[in-house]
Amino acid sequence: MCAYCGRRFTAAAMTLDHVAPRRGRKAYDRRDNLVLACPACNAEKRDLAPIAFLLARRTRAVNLLRYGAHLSPMLIDLARSLVPTEADDAAAVASELDQLDDLDDESPYLD
Ligand SMILES: [Zn+2]
Hints:
The protein is built from 5 helices and 2 strands. The chain is mostly helical. The chain has a domain at 11-84. The protein has a two-stranded antiparallel sheet with strand order 1-2. Helix 3 (59-67) packs antiparallel against helix 4 (73-82). It binds zinc ion (ZN). Zinc ion binds next to helix 1.
């Protein structure tokens, strides 16, 4: 299971991804910095900071939380902070309702 897109692949296709880029430091090979990633996600992530990669598609943060329970607290906090919240949803609904109000002003059924 890819920790970013959540899709299932054969074991042979999977790659090991350093959630925080390795930058030649041995500590980054720790298990709490590694997840399984599919080739497409790994390639797309390669040149991006972890936060930029997760922000580009928020479902990646959701999947990383689901499949990355073993990750370091710092990485889990990062993923959690990027998961769309109920507050985001409420704001989206409120803005859609505002737009409906605007439409009502132009309703042909008004006097
Ligand atoms: Zn993937």
